[in-house]
Amino acid sequence: MDANTKKMMTAFAVIALVLLVIISAGKDTDATNTELTITAGDTPEMIDRANAVLPVVIKACPGIKKYQSEFEFIRAESAQLIDFEDGVAIHFLVKTNNNLPTSIQRYSAGHNCWITVSKNLRIDIAKRACNSVCIGHKF
User: Fold this and answer.
1) Do both 63 and 85 map to the same domain?
2) Does residue 45 sit in the same domain as residue 25?
3) Residue 55 CA, distance from chain mean position
4) How far is the C-alpha of 124 from the C-alpha of 139, rounded, in Å?
5) pLDDT greater than 70 at residue 36
6) How is the beta sheet containing 71-78 ordered, strand by strand?
């Protein structure tokens, strides 16, 4: 393979990658248009704080909206992590018997998950199983 052929193949690969990113970027745009509302929590203030940060959480974790029917519950709690004391935690329990994609289901069934959000909108998701639910595939 000569140098020109390698350059051309590299250029096609870059173009294909750019197109893939553009197509993928538009795929889950409905994840930010949420119908998800948190109605349970430690206090009414925690519920309000969780709902206020929910659009940011859904953008980082589209699975929380997409798979909400696969959770036993979803609720707002006070954040328990160091550096997140003034934040909020969104707690959900993945159903043991659920209809998640197989690659997620076998790792996440029955897990308690917390998405902790600091007051400056830093997000922490502690478990791999919960990250898998968030991103929609095995983490």
Assistant:
1) yes
2) no
3) 11
4) 14
5) yes
6) 71-78, 88-94, 112-117, 123-125
Residue 89, number of CB atoms within 10 A of its CB:
23
Query: Residue 26 corresponds to which amino acid?
Result: G
**With a threshold of 0.85, does the pTM exceed it?**
no
Write out the E strands in 42-128.
Answer: 71-78, 88-94, 112-117, 123-125
On whether both 82 and 48 belong to a single domain, the answer is yes
Evaluate if residue 2 carries a pLDDT over 60.
yes
Considering the chain, what is the average pLDDT of its residues? 77
Q: Residue 10 belongs to what domain range?
A: 1-29
Q: Is 76 exposed, middle or buried (0-12, 13-18, 19+ CB in 10 A)?
A: buried
pLDDT in tens, 47-65: 999 999 999 999 989 998 9
In whole angstroms, give the CA distance from residue 48 to residue 40. Answer: 10
Asked if 58 contacts 32 with a C-beta cutoff of 8 angstroms, the reply is: yes
- Split into its structural domains, the chain has a count of 2
| Same domain for 115 and 47 | yes
